[in-house]
Amino acid sequence: MQSNFVDYVKIYCKSGHGGAGSAHLHRAKYIPKGGPDGGDGGRGGHIILRGNAQLWTLLPLKYSKHIRAENGKPGGKQELTGAGGEDVYVDVPVGTIAKDELGNVLAEIEEDKQEIILLHGGKGGLGNSHFKSPTNQTPRYAQPGLPGEEATILLELKLLGDVGLVGFPNAGKSTLLSALTSAKPKIANYAFTTLVPNLGIVEYRNFQSFVLADIPGIIEGASEGKGLGYRFLRHIERNSVLLFLIPADTEDYYKEYQILLNELEKYNPELVDKDRLIAISKSDLLDEELENEIRKTFPDNFKLIFISAVTQKNLVVLKDELWSLLHP
CA–CA separation, 70 vs 17, rounded Å? Predict the structure, then answer.
């Protein structure tokens, strides 16, 4: 079954042409030489990117890839300005970035109802009434409207989450998300159960909250396009804190952490500068002696939290640690 989550789409946009100015000459029964009274043409419609907090996917644009705004209307007699072309609003989820074909960022939607003009409509032409002068009392010409703009736009969605869950498939990310939030991700005991990013709101003390993002499992080589990781690594770029989840049944804990960190660094070196926290999941399988052995595999300056989504072990401690990193 095809997923409804679409985080990358290419669209063709064209703003409206400006309307032509009028070269009308006034005529009336008792005014044989009324002179020029042509009005200006209307502005062409803009293409406007608009944030919509109700959206979580670019799916609607997958089936509407050609977006055109209306042309401005020509000017009329009696210096009447032509109607402007209707603007077209392209609604996108918060966190969407618009780029040109060379990869240059044109716009970035960071909040609900934010509006950014992607392509400007063409300016309407001036009517002949603007060109009359003592030496040219009957100009019979007017300006044409300016053409609109057209471009191929790449829209890329990066989910806005405060904390991003990083781990291999079957690390327990979806289970933890469901335990900490009201999100209902698909959970099963096989790799790549999570095929799309999931967001959940973690309720904290004093009616405060933060957003937790479950990113599909990363595998070694994800930054080079292997598995699902490369496609979704972009969503981690928006997270303030990265929570590395390593299951208790892993053979080499520190090596697994290093592989994950290496994939992030190869994709975007700036990711390693984010605040990080390491949690050992499924730790209901461990006793205190085994926990101490696992701690010894990490350098002394690493802080580990042993958690269990099933038994709720240390989940409150985990939320406290994440909150302190988000609000230092």
Answer: 8
* CA-based end-to-end distance of the chain: 43
Distance CA 123, CA 32 (A): 33
189 Cβ contact partners less than 8 Å away, ≥ 6 residues apart: 170
* Residue 108 confidence (pLDDT): 93
Residue 291 in 3-state DSSP? helix
* pLDDT bracket for residue 218 (50, 70, 90): low
Residue 78, beta-bridge partner list: none
Q: 77, 26 in Cβ contact below 8 A?
A: yes
The model's pTM: 0.72
Rg (CA), the chain: 29
Identify the pLDDT of residue 176. 87
Contact present, 185 and 178 (Cβ < 8 Å) = yes
| DSSP codes joined into one string, 192-216 | T---S-EEEEEE-GGG-EEEEEEPP
Size of the chain in residues: 328
How far apart CA 20 and CA 143 sit, in angstroms, is 6
Q: Distance (Å, rounded) from C-alpha 229 to C-alpha 169? A: 10
* Packed helices 229-236 and 253-267: angle between N→C axes, nearest 10 degrees: 80
Coil, helix or strand for 59? helix
% pLDDT > 70, the chain: 89
> How many whole angstroms separate alpha carbon 70 and alpha carbon 92?
21
For the stretch 35-63, what's the b/e string if a residue is b when 16 or more beta carbons lie within 10 angstroms of its beta carbon?
Answer: ebbbbbbbbbbbbbbebbeebbbbeebee
Which of 219, 108, 203, 226 has the alpha carbon at shortest distance from 157? 108
Residues 110-167 have pLDDT tens digits of 899 999 999 999 999 999 999 999 889 889 999 999 999 999 999 998 876 789 888 8
CA distance 6 to 92: 11
| Torsion of the alpha carbons at 181, 183, 186 and 187, rounded to the nearest 10 | 10
Tokens of 39: 């009005």
Report yes or no: 22 and 142 within 8 Å, Cβ to Cβ.
Answer: yes
